[in-house]
Amino acid sequence: MTTIELLKYMIEAKSETPDDGRLLEFIEGYLPEFTPIRVDVEDVKNLFIYKKFGDGEHLCFAGHVDVVPAGKGWDSDPYKATEIDGFIYGRGAQDMKSGVCAFTQAVKEAKNFKGTISLLLTSDEEGDAVNGTVKVLEYLKENSLLPDAVVVAEPTCEALFGDAIKVGRRGSINGYITIKGKQGHAAYPEKAINPIHNIAGVLHKMAGVDLDNGDEFFSPSKFVITDIRAGMQVTNVTPNELTMMFNVRNTTITTKEDIRNFVAKNLSGLDYELRLVQGSHPFKTDTNTKLVKKIDEAIMDIVGFKPKHSTAGGTSDARFIAPLGIEVIEFGVKNDTIHSVNERTGIKEVEDLYAIFKKLIEIWE
Hints:
alpha+beta
C-alpha cells in the first residue's frame, strides 16, 4: 500500500473512542517483521510493536487510532475517505490517522537502523485516556522497554505544513470554589450574607489575570473563569452560596500552590472552599536535544525551512511520556479542521510527513 492508500483504509475503519476499528490488528499484520505486544485494558486496545535492528538508541513513534464522533452536517460520508481537490475528507484525517499512517509506512520501509524502532498506539486518547498510553508506558517501564526518544504525530502545523513542532505543552489545572453566604430575603439584605456581592468586589482582580509572564516558549498562565452560578432563579431570595469554576493552562513557572495562594489573596476575609485538580503537568523538551535537532533537520530537508518550536494548544499523550525522562516532541500535519465537520488533510502534507519520518529514521545515529 502507498501512504495515501493506508490513510484511506484507516479513515474507513470506524474507530470512535474506545473502538480501534480493528486497526491495531491490521497494523500488526502490516508490520510482520516487528514484535507486537498487546496491553489491552477493559475495552481499550493498546499496541506496542517494535523491531531491534541493533544495539543503538530506541526511537518510538506514538499516536492514537481513535477518533471523536463524526457529528452531523458533513458534505460527504465521514467514514468514506473522499478525495477532492488535493484533500482527503473523513473523520480522523488530521487527528490523527494522517500521522499514524505516515509513521507506519516509514517504519515499514526502515532499513539499516542502528537501534530499535517502535510504535506505541492506543484507542483511548480522545476519551478518558486512563487505560491507553499511560498503561503501555507502565508495562514498558516494568519490562525495561522504554524508548529514548518519542515522536507523537499529532497535527501541529499552523499556516503551512512544516511550520511548527511542539517541544512541550502547558499543564491544565481545574479549580472549584464555593463561597458561602447566608440565604435571605432580597428586601432585607442586612440580614443576609450575599456571596454574589462578595465576589463582585474582587472578580476583576481574578478574571483573565496572568499568573506569570510566560517565557520564550510558554504564553502566560491565565486564570480563566469558566462558570459562576448561585441562587434559585428567583428575584426575592439571596443565595446561600456561590460556586465558581476556573481553568489555568499553566507553564512550568506556575504551580498548584501558586494558584492556591492567588485565590487566598483575593478571597481573603470570605468564607470559601477551594478544590484544585491537576489534569496534566507542563513539560518542555530541551531544544538542544538530539530529537529536536534531528526532526528540525528532517523537516528542513523535505520542505526547505525549519519549524518554530511551540508549546501552544491543549494536551496530548506526550504529557504521559515526558515525566519519565524521555525526549518527546509532537509533529504532524496542519491543525485547522480537527474534531470539526468536514475534517480534511492535504494529500501532499501526508506524503511529506511520511518523507520526513523516513528521513528522521535515516539520519538517526
